[in-house]
Amino acid sequence: MGQVARHDGAKAHTCVDVVFFDIDDTLYDQARPFAYAVRRVCGEIPGATDAALYDASRRHSGPIFAAFSARRTPTTEEYALRMQQTLADFGVSINHETAVEAQRVYADESGVAMSLSSAMASCLDACRARARLGVGVISNGREELQAEKLEILGISQWVSPGAVFVSQAVGLAKPDPALFDYACDHLGTTPGRCIYVGDAWDTDVVGACAAGMPCVWFNRRGRMRPQDARGVSPTWEVGSEEELRALIGSESFWRFSHT
């Protein structure tokens, strides 16, 4: 069983055992490091804000997400094609070698543009103080890369290594509910007594709902809900870190339970 926070009197009046967070575009604004990598390799892109570049990359991330869902690491070619398609949306053509280099910088050197906001730190403080067993992380991705991001963000202040569950290390990937079940079982709880916070509908919301875990859709990009949601609905939806902080500060958040 993984390491968990000490149970004390202040946590005795909550229905929530663990608050799990996604990493990318949840714990930090992923648009900043992505835009940093693009500009570092390709120069300024006319008319392209950080958010616009990131949103374009997400539109072309289907094969990347599909690879993680299939429990395999995306290929260099898949990452390069996403970079080429992203830049093409802004009328910029780059060759394969440039796309590979931009992806390398994004993966290996963009940490300088990655930071944890004071609002997100406050969210983590509140979750550590109120959740009976503390804070956890459930994320798709490569184990080493996700660990580097958590180190850059200083997440060890709130989350112990035993409460971090990355798809490559576990052998399961969101939206498979088995990953959520695995994390809960490892920490000695059940999905209905936990809450998940994530930004991606297809992996975070769908996966948490399938596992029976109440979830917050952290919709910082203002995306529309899928028309074919098929009955999937987050427990809460917020559009900013400030809204997330307000939600976590409400008593209704801590009294909610599916058990």
How would you explain this protein's 3D organization?
The protein is an alpha/beta fold. The chain folds into 2 domains: 9-28 and 115-255, 3-Layer(aba) Sandwich (Rossmann fold); 31-113. It is 46% helix and 10% strand. The protein is built from 12 helices and 6 strands. The protein has helices at 31-42, 50-59, 62-69, 76-88, 96-108, 118-130, 143-153, 167-170, 177-187, 201-211, 241-248, 251-255; strands at residues 18-21, 134-139, 164-166, 194-198, 215-218, 236-238. Strand 2, helix 7 (143-153) and strand 3 form a beta-alpha-beta unit. The longest helix is centred in the N-terminal third of the chain and has 13 residues, at 76-88. It is globular and about 55 Å long. The two termini are 22 Å apart. The relative contact order is 0.18. Residues 3-7 have low confidence and may be disordered. It comes from Tractidigestivibacter scatoligenes (Olsenella scatoligenes). Its cofactor is Mg(2+).
β-strand number: 6
> Averaging pLDDT over every residue, what do you get?
93
CATH class type of the largest domain: Alpha Beta
Measured by DSSP, the beta-strand proportion falls in 5-15%
Major beta sheet, strand line-up: 3-2-1-4-5-6
State the CATH superfamily name of the largest domain.
HAD superfamily/HAD-like
* Structure classification: alpha/beta
* Major sheet: 6 strands, parallel
Helical content band: 40-55%
Helix and strand pattern? EHHHHHHEHEHHEHEEHH
Unreliable residue stretches: 3-7
Question: What is the gyration radius calculated from CA atoms?
Answer: 18 Å
Q: Helix count, per DSSP?
A: 12
The CATH architecture name of the largest domain reads 3-Layer(aba) Sandwich
Q: How many structural domains does the protein architecture include?
A: 2
Reported by name, the CATH topology of the largest domain is Rossmann fold
